[in-house]
Specification:
The protein is an alpha+beta fold and 557 residues long. Strands 4, 7, 9, 10, 11, 12, 13, 17 and 26 form a 9-stranded antiparallel sheet that branches. Strands 3, 5, 6, 8, 14, 15, 16 and 27 form an 8-stranded antiparallel sheet that branches. Strands 1-2 form a two-stranded antiparallel sheet. Helix 10 packs antiparallel against helix 11. It is flat and about 110 Å long. The N terminus and C terminus are likely disordered.
Amino acid sequence: STQSTWGGFFLSPAKMTRFLSLLAFAALFVLLANAQQKKPSFNPKPDGPYVLFENFQSKDFTSRWIHSKHPEFQGKFVGEEHSQFLGTPGDISLVAPLPAQRYAISTPAEFDPKGKTLVVQYEVRTQTQLDCGGMYVKLLQRTAQPFNPLEFNNESPYVVMFGPDRCGATNKVHLIVRHHNPKTNQYEEKHLATAPAPPNDLLSHLFTLIIRPDNTFEILIDNESRSAGNLLGENYFSPPFNPPREIDDVTDVKPPQEQWDERESIADATDSKPADWDESQPRTIADPDQHRPADWDESAPLVIPDPDAVRPAEWDDAADGAWEAPQIDNPYCAAHGCGPWKAPQIPNPLYKGKWAPRMIPNPAYKGTWHPRKIPNPDFFEDLHPANLNPVAALGIDIWTMTGKLAFDNFLITHDEKVARDFAEASFVPKRASETALKAKWDAENPDSSTDPSFGERFTRFLESVSTAPLPLVAVVLLLILVVIALFCCCCCCDCFKNQDDEQEPAPDPKSTTTASTPAAATPVSTAASATTATTSGSDTTAASGSGVHRRNRATPQ
């Protein structure tokens, strides 16, 4: 039968197909067995009570985090590892993968923070330099209508908005508290005026917000306090939580100057200009001690005809006019000086300028005028703005021009120690590993970008396949089997066809003498076989046994 060479062995196409199939099934078995092994993971958890904790390590986190179906938010978050400086293998984050997208996703978080310390803590990381994008979160407000995650958008009411934002002139960590105004029955956004700037590199960063029942607040970045104060303190929030008790009377009018003089000082009416005060004296005069140099030629021209210029041979005075040499600066002037000579200017010792009377305190001065104050009709006083409204969910709605924004390790608790201890157990070792990997990369690749090479990406792909859930592994390997099957079909179908055409049964020697075929037809068949054998040459004889049968068929004739 027809033979094919593969891997140094001679296999028929049918055997080669079976061999490749067995090889693929063996690979499937190995990968499935590897997938069933416990993959490496970084899975610390808070040691203490909390309202919400999410590190995206469990496979069912997609059932807890629901994408909004609002038409303006088409971006879809995915769960994946970081593509570079992965200090904690197996650590999955919630990633906004594509740039120029709006994303909205939320997870239930039902609690009432009134009278309790509120701690919101989470990690963020950019895998490319953040040029324009937000990485903030919102505690969505519980209302009379149940919260619908499918309708979540940037207009959904929230209690607190917190996190980094960078785009254009904006580069800060937002802290915005929606505060209820009982006078207008409306909610007002109170923005932190002393917001710190977030770091902007390719490492993980931890953002922590603390609002305490005593109205104090604190923002930490990477476990370090970056902003702290009091919700009721002056100049912390704009606008302030409580309006002023009094406001300016808009109907009040400033009196004329005779009644309200704002001038702090006035000219002394008794002062007079001295008799020797000469206002005609100029500010500067010619220096009388300077004299014209002896070699200064005031009659010499500043420019002269170029003595080295030559009249062109093709110049025609009748057509072009009288030829004149081009003008150049007079070299004598540069060396000695030419033209009218002027002495340099010096300050005039007699100059006094314009006389003005001296100023004296204004005896009628009353200070800067302000309109009178009247009671503020919209005044109210909330002495406990830290008593925030009930929360229904934790949401992320962002617009970003930078892809690969990662969120991880969300923690909402009422215990500062729980958040602090969890940060020490999770963020600190992760950040240390990332920093070491980045330092190593920078040392080995001083002139290279931080984007991983193709080899690193392919290696990570293989690792992700080997540690992926079983359904994903099965799908990937099914695709591999399909590719192998198509390859075998393309490479082997022609071989099978040629094998079927060439493997004709050898004729019975007895039938050659008793054949019913007319004898006249035999020489034609013999000649055709001979011609085929001649054109095929020795290669046909060596490669195909059926060719030998065709030539031997003529021998009895």
